[in-house]
């Protein structure tokens, strides 16, 4: 029997898939986005960064901690998990690596002592996804990514993001973070529970920077994400039609070029200034702040980040999200 159907002559709108890491990379530097996600074979990168290694180790230790029964989530066990997951990539030498290993154990053990971790989170390294729009119209994109931790408190979800960078975050940073806002939107849809609160947990200082989103503040972040995603997709489409890659994905040079993962493949970035050393963005050691090997250039807040980017793009060897992006064999658009 012939099936009846409807054809209104309208092609269904394709939803753009976006992640915070891709949007942030394109906003920071379209050239870096192209080198990370579009060009194949993947262009030459720098080696691993020590601050990314440190961030990945701390994240992996805390993730493993929640695999244990609540009674075993002790400060001593957290420190032992740092040892288990430790990598030395990017540090100046074994002495520096050893000092930061001890520091990471102090951070994680203090964090566990200061926070009640007896309740199981709703998600740890949880992938969340949701259709969304920047305005009141139909969904134009799918926002998705991997959140460090999603708690449930008093019937609502809380997105938690760990930080190990040089500078302690504040409420403004938590509120303005596009990544946290998109995780909140996606977590609410995925887990069918309201989500408005987002938190940045800075282990070096013990700071918890929190923000309560409203429908309006989340809508503004979605509008911003939609605008970036549209620009990104248009550039990718024009490139597929034979457009000039350098014109469509221009370099935005600045201080971040010093620690960009794709500096070896970007002449514009090389001309912007000298390269950073692989340990320059480490949080300073309090007992030796003047040590030339504890970090000096940059504040560790941009570009390479904490080595703990979301979206499941953190390298298992401690390399940054940008350095592992080449494993994503997408066409370069927001798909």
From TrEMBL:
Q: Which domain of life is it from?
A: Bacteria
**Domain PD-(D/E)XK endonuclease-like: from-to ranges:** 18-267
Could you tell me where the Gly residues compositional bias lies? 295-310
GO: which molecular function terms? exonuclease activity; helicase activity
Enumerate the residue ranges of region (Disordered). Answer: 285-335
Q: Which residues form a coiled coil?
A: 208-242
Keyword Iron listed? The answer is no
Q: Which residues form the signal peptide?
A: none
Identify the InterPro entries for this entry.
Answer: PDDEXK-like_dom_sf, PDDEXK_AddAB-type, Restrct_endonuc-II-like
Keywords attached to this entry:
ATP-binding, Coiled coil, DNA damage, DNA repair, Exonuclease, Helicase, Hydrolase, Nuclease, Nucleotide-binding
One Pfam family name is PDDEXK_1
Q: Name one GO biological process term.
A: DNA repair
Q: Mind telling me what this protein is named?
A: RecB family exonuclease
Q: What is the lineage of its organism?
A: Bacteria, Bacillati, Actinomycetota, Actinomycetes, Pseudonocardiales
